[in-house]
Specification:
The chain has about 450 residues and is α+β, with helices and mostly antiparallel strands. About 65% of the residues lie in helices and about 15% in strands. Helix 1 (about 5-20) packs parallel to helix 4 (about 90-250) and helix 4 (about 90-250) packs across helix 7 (about 430-445).
Length: about 450
């Protein structure tokens, strides 16, 4: 029993040192010393201290269990001593000594038990302190973990921004290289443009020389044009004068027909009506004073007049049997007006259109017998009567010198012949005048 006291004193010293390590001042020192090592180092130290305290509590509990076992064995010994007192006839002094020893052992056991309870209480307080600190450290660890997660997210975002910035920098570098290439190409293009400009300047100088030559040629051409216009005016004047003279000489109203030819050009005209006061006593402009377009218009009108006017005979070979005008009627013998020209020809002679036009009538028409009437425009119509047969029908377009029928003896007639009429606005004109004018024009144009 006396040998166990030093061991208990050593255990008390170890517990006291463990309590000193668990005191707040010591914790501050550990925290202060562990601060440079970081939170993870401090957490590991507190975990180690908790494990040491748990180990000490286990050792103390094992010692207490040993003391309980010794106490029970002593009680058994006391019971045995009491049982064997009468038998062994122990002396009273030994019994008292044994009782005194048992009393001391009880005192020692109670003190030791009290110290162990105090130690257990201190260890429990230390355990609670360590557990509280461990909970605090775990909370701090959770906060640090959350902060680390936020920091990781921020770092990821920064890394992403850095990658995007690197991509932009790479793109800018690529664009810079492209711009350098473009500048190089532009330099080449500029050199080419400069060469083209020099070439264009040379071409411009050559074009200026050519333009000067063209201006000279243009002036010469203008002089030639003026001369040609004068000659053309004279030629047109001669042509129109020839046509009008031939018509007038043979009794055809050339001015009336020319006016109709001018108004029958087929070209549209129009515009708002703006009346002007009539100019009185203004002489008609000579042909050399008219604009060239008007001269060309007069020439075209004269050509239309020649094409529309029946200036050729309706039969190639013929003999006049009755002229235009007053005559003795072959059937009654009385004087009467003959509105056309009667011509005889061999049997089967073909009758042709004396000008192009449109067939108005083709068939039997009273005293005319089988007749063809053709509209040549400008109010001019021709009649071909007493035909034997027809070669056209009403509504048909005929061309100049196209066969329209065969000479015959139908209607009011005394024999085979062709009654040929020319009418202007339904008024008969002398066909011989037109035929003579056509012969004269043909002779003039041939010469």
């Amino acid at each position: 029993m006396n040998e166990r006291a030093p061991a208990n004193a050593d255990d008390e010293k170890r517990l006291h040192m463990a309590e000193n390590r668990a005191e707040p001042e010591g914790a501050e020192k550990i925290t202060g010393s562990a601060r440079p090592c970081g939170r993870w180092t401090r957490f590991r130290k507190w975990t180690f201290l908790a494990a040491v305290c748990s180990f000490c509590v286990g050792v103390l509990l094992a010692g207490a269990n040993g003391l309980r076992t010794e106490y029970r064995s002593l009680q058994l010994e006391l019971e045995n001593v009491a049982a064997y007192r009468s038998e062994a006839e122990l002396t009273k002094l030994q019994a008292k000594a044994l009782e005194h020893a048992i009393a001391e052992l009880r005192v020692t056991f109670n003190e030791e038990h009290k110290r162990q309870l105090d130690t257990i209480a201190r260890l429990n307080r230390l355990y609670d302190t360590l557990r509280s600190e461990l909970g605090f450290q775990e909370a701090r660890l959770i906060e640090v973990t959350a902060a680390k997660s936020v920091a990781d997210l921020h770092q990821d975002r920064l890394n992403e921004e850095l990658r995007e910035r690197d991509d932009r920098i790479a793109l800018l570098i690529e664009q810079k290289a492209q711009k350098i290439d473009e500048l190089r190409h532009l330099g080449i293009t500029l050199a080419s443009v400069s060469a083209e400009r020099d070439s264009a300047l040379a071409v411009g100088e050559r074009l200026e020389r050519e333009l000067l030559a063209l201006e000279i040629r243009l002036r010469e051409t203008e002089t030639q044009r003026q001369q040609a216009e004068v000659a053309f005016r004279e030629w047109v004047e001669n042509q129109i004068e020839t046509i009008e003279t031939a018509l007038w000489r043979n009794g055809v109203d050339a001015d009336r027909l020319m006016d109709r030819a001018l108004n029958d050009s087929g070209l549209g005209q129009g515009g708002p009506l703006m009346l002007e006061e009539p100019e009185s006593n203004l002489p008609e402009l000579p042909i050399d004073a008219l604009p060239l377009d008007d001269i060309v218009g007069r020439l075209q009108a004269a050509q239309r007049l020649v094409l529309a006017a029946p200036l050729l005979p309706p039969i190639a070979a013929y003999q006049v049997t009755s002229a235009y005008g007053d005559r003795r009627d072959p059937l009654t013998g009385r004087r009467a007006f003959h509105p056309g020209l009667d011509v005889a020809a061999p049997r089967g002679s073909e009758v042709v259109a004396t000008a192009s036009g449109k067939v108005l009538r083709a068939g039997r028409v009273g005293a005319y017998g089988i007749m063809v009437e053709i509209d040549h425009g400008m109010g001019i119509t021709t009649h071909y009567a007493h035909l034997k047969e027809l070669r056209v029908k009403a509504g048909e377009e005929v061309t100049f010198h196209q066969t329209i029928g065969v000479i015959g003896n139908t209607g009011r007639s005394t024999g085979r012949h062709l009654h040929y009429e020319i009418r202007l606005d339904k008024k008969p004109l002398n066909p011989a005048s037109f035929i003579d004018a056509g012969r004269e024009l043909a002779a003039s144009f041939r010469s």
